[in-house]
Every structure is written in C-alpha cells, then in structure tokens.
Amino acid sequence: MKILISDKLAEEGVNILKAEKDFEVDVKTGMSPDELKSVIGDYHAIIIRSATTLTGDVIEAADNLKVIGRAGVGLDNVDLKAATKKGVVAMNTPAGNTTSTAEHTMSMILAVSRNIPQAYSAMKAGRWDRSKFGGVELYGKTLGVIGLGRIGATVAKFAKAFGMDIIAYDPYLSNEAMAQKNIESVTLEDLYKRSDYITIHIPKTNETKNLISTKEIEMMKPSVLLINCARGGIIDEAALAEALENKKIKGCALDVYDSEPLDPSSPLLKYDNCVVTPHLGASTSEAQINVAIEIAETVRDALLGRGIVNAANFPSVDAESYKTLEPYVNLGQSMGQFAGQLIHGRISEVKITYSGILTQHKTAPVTLSIINGLLTPILGEGVNYINALDIAKDRAIDVQDVKSTKVDEFVNCIKLDVKTDKDPFSMLGTLSSNLQPRIVKIGSIYMEAVPKGHMLFIQNNDKPGLVGAVGTILAQDNINIAGITLGREAERKTAISVVNVDNEVTDKTIQKLKDTADVLYVKSLKV
Length: 527
Hints:
The protein contains 17 helices and 22 strands. By secondary structure, the protein is an alpha/beta fold. It folds into 4 domains: 1-95 and 282-313, 3-Layer(aba) Sandwich (Rossmann fold); 98-276, 3-Layer(aba) Sandwich (Rossmann fold); 318-443, CATH 3.30.1330.90; 453-527, ACT domain (Alpha-Beta Plaits, 2-Layer Sandwich). A 7-stranded parallel beta sheet has the order 8-7-6-9-10-11-12, sandwiched between helices. Strand 10 (225-228), helix 11 and strand 11 (251-254) form a beta-alpha-beta unit. The two termini are 38 Å apart.
C-alpha cells in the first residue's frame, strides 16, 4: 500500500511507516493543489499537517484513498463531507500536544507569579532590581480551571504537585466524574469569586466567545492572575486591558489572542504584569514528535485493519446501508448541535429512540452523529464521530439508544431526550420529503423547523404582534429572514419560534429582542 506524506513530518513518524514491509512511503512536500490532484489517485493514505488542503475535488480524484491522517488537532483543511462520501476515514491527533500545552500553562503561571520576564529584562538592561520583583507562591493558592478535558485535567494534576487547591467548572463533566478526579466542582460565578488563579482550557465557540469580560472580572479578587493558553477571544481583550489599567486584577499571562499575530499596537503590550508569548503551547520538539508518532501509528493500524481511532467522520459502512443512513446521520448531527446549544445544566443522561425504517438498520453511526453534535458546541474540535461516546462516558453521561415499534405521528423519526441537573430537554426529528432534516417537536410543542445555518430560537408569551415585532427589529439591523416556523402549547400561553436568518445575529440585536415585551428567551444558534 502506498502512503503519501505531503507536509513536513518528524522523522520518527516517517520511520514507523517505512518499517512496515507492506507500505511504500513517499515524502513529497510543497506540492501545488494541481500537482497533488494529479498524483493522489495512486495512494491508499495521505498524511498532512496545515500546509496541505484536501478539497472536495482532490478527494474525488483519490480513487484508492482509504485514510487521511492529520498530524494535529484541527481538520478544517479537509473536506470531511467529501471524504465521508468517498468512504475515506479522516483522523487527527487530539492528544499529541497535551503535555506541551499543560507545561506551557504552568510556565505562564510561574512566570506571572514570580515576575520572571520583567526581572530578566531588567537584568539584561544592567539593573539589579531585586526588591522590585517580589512574587507570590503557588502553594496553598486556589486554581480555578475552566474546562477539564485532556489539557485542563493535566494542568490540574501538575498544579496539585505545587500544593495548589483545585476547583473547576465543566458543564459537560458530571459531579461524579469530577469527584473521581478529586476536584471540587463549582459554578462559574463561584470559580470567579474564589480563585487566586484562573486558567482556561476550552475551545472558542459562540458559547465561549468573550466568556470573561467586564462583568466577570468584577466578580474576581483584585489579586487574581488570569492565564489563557487555549484559544484567543475567550477573554475579552478590551475588558482585560481596562482591568489591568484600573488594577482590577493583579496580572495575566496570555499565549493566544483574538487575532493572531497580536497587533504590536495592542494595549496589552504596555503592561508589565501582562506576560505574553506568541502561541507557543504546542511548540516543543516533543509535541511535534508526539503528533508524528501518533498519526503514523494511527494510519498504520487503520490500513492494516487493527482498528480506527480519532476519526472525525463516522466508520465506513457498505454502500447500500450508507445510502439509507446518510440522511439520518445528517439529521442526527443537526439535532445534536441544535440541542447542544439550548440545554441548561450538566448532562447526566441522553436517550435516543429510533422508530420506523431505522429499526431495521445498525444505528451506531446515527447515535455517534447525535452525541458528536450534542457535545461539539461546548467542547469544540476535540470531539468527533469516533470519540464522542468515549468522551460522554468519561464525563459520566449515560447514553441509551433504543428502537421502538410504536407507530407515532411520524413514521420514521428520532426522539432525543436529554436529562440534566437543571431543565430536561426533548425534541423529535424526521426527514422532509426530499430527505432534509426537520425538527418537528421541541418539548411538548409541535413545529417544523429547518435546522440549518444561522437561527434564532425565541420563546415568548403567546400574544398578538410578536412576529411583527421580531421582524421589525431584524429589518432595522439589516438581518434578512430566510424562514420562520412557529409552535405553541395552547392558545394564548407559551409559544416558540425558530427563525432562519441569512447571517449571524449580533449581541446588540439579541438584546433588543430580549427587551421586547412578552419575549421570555432568545438564543442565537448555528448548525
């Protein structure tokens, strides 16, 4: 079998593949898209990093391709839909930079605690300012960890070795799973108020953008130190600069920024108590070697039939089954993403009920697509079709899928029930006559929503004039309505609507809608 490595990969990874007698390995870096398209048909696997983009037409030309391996976390340079249609498994390396990023986080905590960058600069300038750079100890301090995935949990483990007390917030990790890690589970507000240090380890999503801004900073101790080695934009940089200026916080350490590279005119650069590095979290020789080894072993095992791990698209099925399941996989993904943005509280149980034609097929790919969609809005790119159930299990989320012979209003449908420590959530989904996803029931309210693109979910008292008011506000802000579906519990009680719009709705517009009389809840969604 032939393997193409089209981007620079550490030699350790290349050697793993070359050691297999059944493999012929070619390293060809720097190819143009046309060059890649002209040769990819000869290969059974390709390993890439960020320089190579596998577009739909390139994948279409890959007649023998079985595996795509990405040495890194992101797969945004791979057309996953095209790969899935072609029956190609796309895999990445979500764990390769865990230690590297966790260690960098601890380095930043120490650097900002002991004023190391400032003391170094003073020494290089010929100054012995020993009294100026007194620091604080980590021992006995409280570290608040936002997000307890691989990296967050590793940081917590490292910090415990320094004698720190750990509290954490992770809405997708149950209290039982948190207790198993011997970490106290707290609310975000409690974490802001109690922490001496706050470190962020979550993806940037619509939910987490500007998660920490002026309001949140006001809750914190004036002695707090903020650290972000995850993604830029989770901390509101303008609010952070204002807090540094007004001494609302003691300091911060940042490795990531809302826009990279960081603008040299950024106000953050003028504060000595703001330690900055140029996105170095994964930039260690070990991390580069680790991802090379991990992807080489992953691709090797997949080609030799030893199992598939870290796949970003669902496992291959026979062509006939795929033809039936594909629209339901799409429906499941849409339902999961829709629900994931609306649920409140920690998930403890997910029950998926299949009826109709789905009872005649293995529904594992659909279940995977639902759980993947459900967890992605909060966990981001770390979740994929293969690892979604494992992540749910790690977070003590009980996933049940059952097949029902009961004939309901919709013959072929998927019912999703999510139990949390706050409000339960349920929805029903089916396919339209042209096999497009439709949400036909949310809670007890029937409707026919199109879960696609940018949407607004609105709950309101069932009073006349609400639809017109919403339309007027959106029109004033130049937001075009592509479609709207309505449903209500009973006459003149509670109603909900799903409004499809052509572009993302701004926070300003959302606030206008929330301020409208009889509007109870507004949420911007993206599927």
